[in-house]
Protein 1
Amino acid sequence: MQEISKGANVSLTALSEDAGAVVVSLGWTSATGAGDADVSVLLLDENGKIRSENDFYFYNHPAAVDGSVQLLGKTPTSNGDEDRISVDLTAVPEDVARIVVAASQYGGARFGDLDDLRMTVSDRAGEPLVGYSIEDAGVETAFIFGELYRRGEEWKFRAVGQGYETGLTGLATDFGIEVLEDTEPTAAPTAEIAVVPAAVPAPPEEGGATAVPAEAPAAAPEAPAEAAAAAASSATVPAQTRGRAPRTTRKKVTLPKVAKSLAENDTWRTARLFPVPSLKSDKEREVRATSVLLSVMAQVPELGRRLTAGFGAPAGRMQTFTEVPLPHGDTPKRPDGVIRVERAGKLWTALVETKTHGNPLKDEQVQQYMDIAARRGYEAVITLSNDVALDGSPVVDVKIDGRRKHKVSLWHLSWAEVAHQAQMLIRHEGVGNAAHAWLLQELLEYLQHENSGCHGFQNMGPAWVPVRKGIEDETISPDDERAIDVVESWERLIRQVCLRLGGELGQKALPVQRTRRDSDPRARRALAAAALCADGKLSAELRIDGTSSVIAVTADLRTGKVRTSVDIPAPEGSYPLATAKRLLRALAEAPADLHVQSLVEGENGPRGTLERLRPEPGDLLPKDGAAPTGFRLSLIKGMGNTRGNTESGFIRGVDAAVDRFYHGVVAHLGAVEARGGRRG
């Protein structure tokens, strides 16, 4: 990979023969775990302005209809978070001259609070081509990391590194986007970005943003439906707020509320498009699951594109196949599936190998498919199983022949990630029509059925039982390699918990990593394994977008308890008793067994259950009159004692503990967090 400095540029074509589609990655780390930023992409014409409202992509407008741009969302890495963007350069309209990639922060956060700011560009096969690190971030609240731009018939990349102290608002006005400032007082300032339609002349370079009426014009009497639709799809983009419906230029369909059932009783079962109860063997589950998923991907373009864009597939017509015989030595091999995408007469092909019910992928089998793909000129092999991929930890071990000119990329999907993407589309972002929404709902029902075998990560591995017993008996050695395997399984479990919760909420949920970019994932896991052997605890943190809090999860293998907790800072300048009363009022619907503890200069203060503290909020305050700096809220739950290495009481216990803590506690803390401000 070539490293370049601020202001430098490089030809993508010169770096790779396979740069027709690229994946742009923005990454950062945060010492507190609370740092975050929102990625945005702008398509600009020769004048440096957007052409229409469709040229601005962000968290609530993540994909282009033509597939040229798609925000793939955040993924955890060994050193923090990484936001990935798929850009199909062959699909970018000819009148687009530049593609600007930027990120912005909110709630008073600054890019100087983040570490290791970095942008990389990889080719279709996932090979990193060029990287650029920002070293001088300070008070800026928005940054243009870099841009892709045309020069004749080729695309080039330029490292920009331009910061804005005025956030997304300041960045947006530079590219023909009008800004509406919110004049009403709020806990945190907000702004709305209004995109200039193509029919309206862009404001002059020196004029800045033009005025926009605060209210939409009234609908014409003769066309109320059309006027209402136009008002609903007005070109306003929320720059700071969260949780609004997706902003698109055409109506999107999400699932309606469930109507009252017409069944006489609970024994009547709804007819399903993909029946599951008859499945009895692992082979039946694999064949059915592969066919169900690939058929829905081909029929619902939003899902097919979302699941393949990050693997280098172009935007185009997709067809899928199952059980395709392919020559290999004396005996033909039959991959579980084949995905083909056609664009401009060119084909992109991926072989698919599927496992269900916790069955592991086989290195030798995947290696054979890699060799077949290389010989036949296919682009990728995709493995699909209950396992969850981690950065720096391969799911299968294969050898790639570097002497071959044609490169084949190996990618992995978990069933939990498939379910997450289906949830995001049908419950939050929407799809093109009602039939597509119904198909996705049927897919989700299938994946979640106990007989499908597609439940996601459900195997703590063969090291789980001996390590847990060794911890209970205090006989395990700190350098036991099996402890590292358990730590890795724990990371996979936390990643899956984030996928499930994020899909349900329609918000990003990610594990928090506090290590720097140059850290070694195995060395980090070795330290965690030593701590596990010493104190018998597995620990993790996760953050949900839209909240300022980091949720800590600790599984104590000696006591058999899972503790979920969150620290809430006390508002500056407030009266301690008033703060305690306000906190307890916000937790009126929280579980009575919630533990509340005051924090005094980082130390532990008085504590008690919510049930005991409600009538006496003053018991939460230190007796010496010291003002609490914050409060720690904790729930403790049994984690299950099943000894098997398949889906156990432990896995279900951790998932249930996080779910109960979020819905019972964190979801009620919005007002308290707004007063307390953001941490880090």
Protein 2
Amino acid sequence: MDSDSTPSPSSASPFDMVSGALGRYIPPGPAAAAAGSAAQRGDAAARPREQADPAPGPQEQILGAVNLDRDLRITRCNLDPPVFAGVKAVPGSLFVDLLPPWDVPTVTRRLRQVLETGEPHVARVQRLRRSDGSELVVSMSILAAAHGEGLTVSLIAMARRLHLYAAETAIGTSLDIGETAQSLADSLLAWGDVAAIDLDFAVWTGEAVTERKPGRIRLRRAALVPDRAWPDGYVTPGDDLPSDASRLLAQAIQRDDAAQAIVIPDRAAIERALGSARLVRALVPGDQAAGVACIPLVLDGEPPVVLGVAEVWRREGRSFDDGELLDLQELVGRTAQHVDLARQHQREHTQVLALQRRLLPRSAGDTIETASIYRPAAPDSAGVGGDWVNSFPLPDGRTALVVGDVVGHGLGAAATMGQLSMEARALLSAGLAPDEVLEHLDETVSLLDDAESGLAAGYSALGSTCCIAVYDPVSHRVTLSSAGHLPPVLVPPGGRGGPVVVRPHPGLGAEFALREPFDVHAFTAPPGSLLALYTDGLVEDPALAIDEGIGRLADAVSTVHPWDALEEAARRVVSAVAPGRQRDDVTLLLARMIGYRKGDTVTWRLPARGDAAARARTLVSALLRQWNAREATRDSVLLVVSELVANAVRFADGPLTVRLIRSGQGLLCEVGDTGNGRPRLGRKGLLADSGRGLHVVHGLTTRWGVRWTDTGKVVWASVAM
């Protein structure tokens, strides 16, 4: 092969490719002579150019390359373009010797990271030291050499307009406020030695940005570059600026006409403006800082609104000229829109998380212990989805456990999530069975998706899933229905866990032809049992079958000891099962069944005869004496039970069931029958023949209601102890 030929793409190293590109852009003359001297040194990039190649002007000579070994020492270099004059890249020396001292730790860490992982690090704005003490701003990319032999560092000298273009393309790629501010600070470093971004506190919280009077801005530091150890007292990212500093900056940048850039040219003027040694320590980055340009981030409007301020600090002898200030104002001005977009995204993120936290279980009562985990797929609002869990005691002493997964992300999914959650809670509290509740939710999703609401808003909840379980602490039975949701995992006391057998069903809002009645699954959950409800993000992993993921969850829940704190156990289960690379929201609800103590519940079966009320009073009276109930409580309970039994005998058929439950909240009286009529409290007078009993019950109880069973209904009433 001809020694002057360019290596093929398959065999060329990154250094050869970068240097080859450089060779084509070196014009005849002194640069070519430099290339010839490089050829004598054996650099691959110094091969003669073909005469047909164009010879661009000196302003285009911006590309250089440096090859490093695994000890980060320079082995070859090609920094021949005039723009790199004074950058002494000597073979055998450390590459970090070309850097300002404060950049050495960060760049060293990035170099070693590329060595270890092989993944390139592209386009970092960096400074190089020249031999005369000045600095050159470059865009630095780090590439792994072939076969792990070292690194190639590509350097592009950043001409002013080129850097401005690169900065504008880099900023705004994230909707995270901190990342947006950091990108701006990194870009501003091309114009100074230190760059800081301070944002109004309202931007951080996502609040609406409104007009503010001068002096009312509260600033928090969002970004600071370069990354180094700063002295005590200096304001670093996450810190609030002192109130008098915020007031001072507000007066400087927020005027009656429009916010303008402020330049303080020397150290003496800076100290006079700040007025105190404390503010100098908080705001001035070291003794070398001698001048600062403060450029406001302004949101266009009538009047303009200041979102914050960018600060660019320089050392002595480097004043800001008009062209540089125009570039700074142009860059910061274009960034303000990205900052406001991030603020709006933060506001949505905060609203969604607040709604989800409101739906998280707080207390499930004395008969069941619950713990829940919610982990969004991403820290920004784009990753906040429609997963939700809820557990709450029902008025009749049972406990509802609900988990759902609404299609989509953001406020559309959050609004649907909140509506479905609240509707499910209301219907369950009204006594509807889980399958009946799902029928209503199915209809709700269909209505939300019609042309006038859901689709017009650009959001569809069709296909959302939900699973509802209701635990009876007396019979220790769980009644469960599912709409397209993955099956819960049940772990009996001292046994191994496994998924509950649930017949598959389409998600909510399925087409009419696909709709089938929701099945009801009933199973026993003795005290000490664990029930795990979850969303698919916990068990779905591209590397595993879904059944295997559910099996891993069952194994993890089976390791929970009866004495383990449930909150800690839930976190441990999620850590063990959740995919390493999380693609969806992860939600888990763990419920440990406790139930009532055996002596706190009594059930009697009575025939529906005329003497049933008297028989019930006798049995209940004896029990209340055994429970040492107060006399006033005994009188109220006896009257309530008598009225409920008499009402059942009058309007229902079949045998009656009377159950009394003692709990920390009071006494729960239940009377079940085989009738399907719903008792209603009318507006009739107390002397009317019909409905008088329910008025008596209503006056003596804290709450009463009806729930429906397979064989009829149960009327319950709660009496305070």
Protein 3
Amino acid sequence: MASEEELFASVDALLNEEPHLPPPAERARLREAAGITQARLATALKTTTQSVKNWENGRSEPKSPRLDAYQRLLNGWAAKYPAPSAASVPGAAAATVPAAPIGPAASAGRTTDAPQTLTVPAAGSARPADRPAAASRRPAVKKAAAPAVDPRFPHGPLAVLNGDGCAYGTGGIVLDCPAATVVELVEWALRESGLGAPRLHRNGKDSDPLIVLTAAAAVKLGLPERLEGHEQRRSLRLPEDHPVVKAVVKAKWRLTQRGFGPWVRIYRKAQGTQRQCVQLAVLSWDALDERSWPGVAGMEPADIARVLSIYAQRVITPRGSTAVSGLELMTALRPPTRAVRDEASGNWVPGHNPGSLGTEPVDPAPPEATPEHPVVVDSGWTGGFLNEEAYQWVRDVSLLNDEECTLPYAVGLDLNTAFLAAAARLVVGLSEPDHFHAPAFNPKIPGSWLVDLSHVEVDPRLPSPFTPDGTRPTGPAWYQTHTVAYAQELGCNVAPLEAHLRRETGAYLDPWHDRLKAAYVDTLADLGVTKDLDDRAFLAAMERHKDADPAMAAVLAAIKATVKGGIGKLRERPQGRKYKEGERWPALQRPTWRPDIRAAVIAKARINMHRKLRNMATMTGLYPLAVLSDCVVYPSPGQSPLDFLPYAASGKPQPGGFRLGPTPGLAKLEGVQTMLWAVDLMEQGYNPARHIKGGDAVLDEGE
């Protein structure tokens, strides 16, 4: 039987517990019954009007000592203005969802299936206070079911922190962040925010919380509003003696090698299986590049949170530039290790995960490397390099016939994420290269082949499939397997002189392709561009899709940049003025520094493009004016691709050539110019495709 002291101790513990507030809707009713505005209440409690709105919407909860004062006020109002009986209130059966705790209890002992943070008002009750967000103009489309919420991360993957302490998250949720320093922000993000995202693969790691700082939030935390210096913006960092950096180090937190820049990762050694890492992004330091995230940095915090949350849900929680995120996505979907049982000890230990690139970097073969790579500099290699790049070709004006010159328009067709389509079912090397002399060509083995393709005949009105500039090869050169296989497809009897081949192979990029393809197609569907549209409706939808919803259009642009940047990042070049040729640069320490995989993707995309060009010439007699990367320009009698694309008598597109549609690898209208303008450009040595596309970056190798 319990003693009197034990009973009194238990009772005292109950008395000392934090007070329980009434449901959010009741808080708003009591304040309105007392005739007090949210702004006046905020002044009395020494907080912001937005925080009061959040308390009354169930999006956040106050903390002591403000919690005790708020409780006392509500109790006083409740005595003066008791709630009417449930039977007398119309629609009283409408449920009020209890607010989720924001604190350590949010991730331990939770029994709900989703974060219960929003109030469901009864019929006829007051509408919750509006948050600052732009109205959505998305077309009405059928939505897929929302993904299940991980109870460990009830508030989503990320939040955008404003200067008033409001952290805007997924689904319109707004959290109250009391942090006044970067160290406090990191502690709050890990222990109280409920932010994070579950792993994408069972052998992978959960995504760390991401906190995006507005300019006002950065200044409040002691950071400069802008980073200034002579280096490129992405290379700028806070100096090591900056007070914020010193405070982070003093609190026993660490920074990665890239320091405290626009994207910063702050971490400690993991405790068991619990990671201690937070990612910060500073908007006013150009963390969200305008090319990859058009217009996002200038949006309201709630809309920034919406854009980034959709990207995180469909792709990955951003961890840097879209190029960095594209590379991180590869590793997240193909983790380098998995748990295996050690036969000697019986314990589970990390072991190689089949199909991945492993944990150790692998040096490329000399012809696959870049001229400044140590394997080239140290060996004195002079045997040439693999030159698998995207097309930049213009047809010579002398090869235009009279009929082509009389056509009034030049129409650009752009292939949807052509390099993503090339990554589908692409077999690449997973191990280090082996050198062979005079091997028999095998189209199923990925690698680099030294072979002479200068004798392969190609119609001069088409670019050569073997070179990026479309000119005919002049002798032996290094080619990726797909390029040599295409020469064989054209009837050439290839005889390689040398080869660097890999014995272990696999479709490493398959899950990466599948996830990004789904993200791209789903986002286009949100913008009204769906698979069931006919070609005319598709072109009309593409013409207006960027204006339908700027936020979703920004997500689409980010997904496309993730594809190109991720592939380009596989061969990241050295950066910085202090680099010396022959030194190893940081990117070489990654298992994902694989120029051979990048070459395989680009070679397959270029070959796919040339195959379509050949088929178009066969079916229609049309030849391109120019090709830039994934854009091809044709002379046309009208302003629409429907005026020259091949269609069967039934009205269906002919297979083999260019087809319109939202799926990666299919085409869309990129631009229209007058034919005289295009011919004039060609005579001056310009590429019409480049002008129609607006000079898109080709496979950016950005940070």
Protein 4
Amino acid sequence: MAIETNEPAAKEKSLNFLEEIVKEAADRGVAIQTRFPPEPNGYLHIGHAKSICINFGLAQKYGGKCNLRFDDTNPTKEDVEYVDSIKRDIRWLGFDWALERYASDYFDQLYEWAKELIRKGLAYVDDQTQEQIREGRGTVSEPGKESPWRNRSAEENLDLFERMKAGEFADGEKVLRAKIDMAHPNMLFRDPIMYRIIHARHHAHGQSDSIEHITHSICTLEFDVHRPLYDWFIQALGIWPSHQYEFARLNLTYTMMSKRKLLKLVQEGAVMGWDDPRMPTICALRRKGYTPASVRAFAEMVGVAKRDNVIDLGKMEYCVREDLNKVAERRMAVLNPVKVTVTNYPEGKVEYFECVNNPEDPSAGTRQVPFSRELYIERDDFMENPPKKFFRLQPGGEVRLRYAYLIKCEEAVKDAEGNVVELRCTYDPQSGGGSSSDGRRVKGVIHWVSARHAFEAEIRLFNPLFTKENPDDCEEGQTWEDNLNPESMIVTKGWLEPSLAGAEPGRTFQFERVGYFCPDTDTTPGHPVFNRTVTLKDSWAKINK
């Protein structure tokens, strides 16, 4: 029997403006076709990841398709390394493309369309220099001046254009310009250059989209001024009418998105490469331990806006923390160790405790962790003179070793400088598995590793690459490079439980009470390296609350 309640139904999440447009088209029976058109001249970053999620995600959700089109406007400069990395990043994010295309595939068709514009009197060959063309464009408040070559006949223009293609003229000697309006208020309409000698056309996005029957050409906000010109070419040629829609690009605090500046960091050795975990590239996020699901969740969280804004880096960390909490197996690791000797535990004895791999996922099962007389705990988990509400180890105090026994600190051994080098403790033999000899309970629970069984690893702790929220915010006389964070990577050592031995890149673990970590690609036999993906502290959620 159905039970009626007066409670309102759960409110569905409202659609962003792009999804409203795509949904409306899909509801009308339009076969949705999008495209992702990266330039293969560098590695994709988190901003591209947002675009990937939008273009592929909308097509996927509304039964459409998304093409991958490499915008290789100057194919001689492109590198297969970048093409391969782009494909790898898209697939890692969980998407695949319908067709793989290159803008250069369409050069012959674009050339024919350029000749058609010439025949229609809508394009002409200009002999002016680049400087003369720039001066002749005018200003926002003043109209431009027509080129003295603007009224050449179609026959002469066709002849010159074909000779340009044949290589008869020097670089920059002639250009092909669209013939529109030198007094147009939109400066882009003042006879824009279509072809230069050697260099490929500038305004071919719309024609390429038309060839592929792209229904929704989605791009970032800086292209909104190009939309009227995009439409002009389509209308002038009478070709299939694709439509352009713009959204705000992604900007993150403490993060540089300029591909040119990122390349400079790589070339100058300021980072370890494009996949350095401090970089905002997708391959760097992968190396750092981010999951595809966390990146997609971040893209969903920041949404699609019509105005540029800057997103708090903490939001991205929140998304990966939320995902890893559900999927990452737990392990114990001590990064700043102090030795603990359990004086009443038999020498040479080893026993194994069953430890839960992931309390969020019972199917992850359990593992066996060795326990022995000598242990390591975090140095921060002991204080000689603790403040109130310090529930970890202190002289005469008792704590629970995670999954194992209660131990009591009897003595702190110091070196000549007064530094604590060893804690001598006793354990309650009846306290294994959460019990105790007399039913007593303690508030403090700390992690540990067996000194005899743990192995040493290099640990890399990553912080933001820049010291300022806006890396381009420079003091007088400085450059953005002066804002690089000298402590963006801190290399230290840690002692890890034996089950982590042999862990391969691609897996991420929660080091209990420490943070999320993953094996780095620099790992070699005998020299394991682990990267910190993110801390356990969720500062953004607290601030937001």
